[in-house]
Amino acid sequence: MKEPLLSLKDLKVSFFNNSGEVKVIRGVSFNLEKGEVLGVVGESGSGKSVTSMSIIKLLKGTGKITNGEIVYKGENLVNKIEKEMMKIRGNDIAMIFQDPMTSLNPVFTVGTQISDVIRRHQGLSKTEAKNKAIEMLRMVGIPSPEERYNNYPHEFSGGMRQRAIIAMALSCEPELLIADEPTTALDVTIQAQILELLMELKEKMDTSIILITHDLGVVANTCNRVIVMYGGLIMEEGTVDDIFYNPMHPYTKGLLQSLP
Ligand code: ADP
Ligand code: MG
């Protein structure tokens, strides 16, 4: 049988505060096949972001993986040192963070931030990296990318900023993109455009995607399979049709009923 691109096996994550250990991810397992768009849904606080940050080992604060395996292309990432993880983040697994300010630095131009990422990971010259960054900006639908290259993040609209963040994430042609609520901060019409863009790029670049969202409508339009999280556990997993038309778990039924 073909090996999945990514496989989480009984992942547990805790945070540690003054009064001790807070278990936040309590045993999460799933597979992601190459080419798949896997939706991760669940209410706020259910553990979607912590799970995704565990995969690239960028847990904040006192977060620690206490159990399990994260197998990417046959290799367990859990025990990899930071230097190896940096390489993986640069070449294999890219992430779009829930908070857009985590991705773009306000004091540097959008273009230089993208070309810096390209230079760091692909060893291109300054001019080559700049040209590639402009190409990426063009590809994500930024008008006049040669001029826009020199703009600062605040000179972009919210939708344009998100396009630039997608350009940055995809500039290293990752095999896996983890997008954590990539459209939550945007107006509804812009949300649809950004999702459409992501799906177009997915086809073009053959990227597999983990799409975290609390929006079941988004899942219905974009995902092959979906995982439903609650309280740090996976409540249910299935095809989009399974989950929408034949939910097994009471929590999923409730989630569907709460749809507008
Ligand atoms: P979601 O993305 O599904 O909304 P998160 O993964 O962000 O949820 O959070 C899951 C749980 O982990 C929540 O209870 C949250 O309070 C806790 N948590 C997240 N980040 C931290 C942190 N840096 N320190 C302590 N607890 C955290
Ligand atoms: Mg989150």
UniProtKB/TrEMBL annotation:
Q: What is its main location?
A: membrane
Using the record's annotation, list all stretches that form the ABC transporter domain. 6-256
* Keyword Nucleotide-binding carried by entry: yes
**Mode of membrane association:** Peripheral membrane protein
- What's a single GO MF annotation on this record? ATP binding
Record has Glycosyltransferase as a keyword? no
Q: Which UniProt keywords apply?
A: ATP-binding, Cell membrane, Membrane, Nucleotide-binding, Transport
UniProt-annotated location(s): Cell membrane
| Record-stated family | Belongs to the ABC transporter superfamily.
Protein name as catalogued? ABC transporter ATP-binding protein
Say which species the protein is native to: Tissierella carlieri
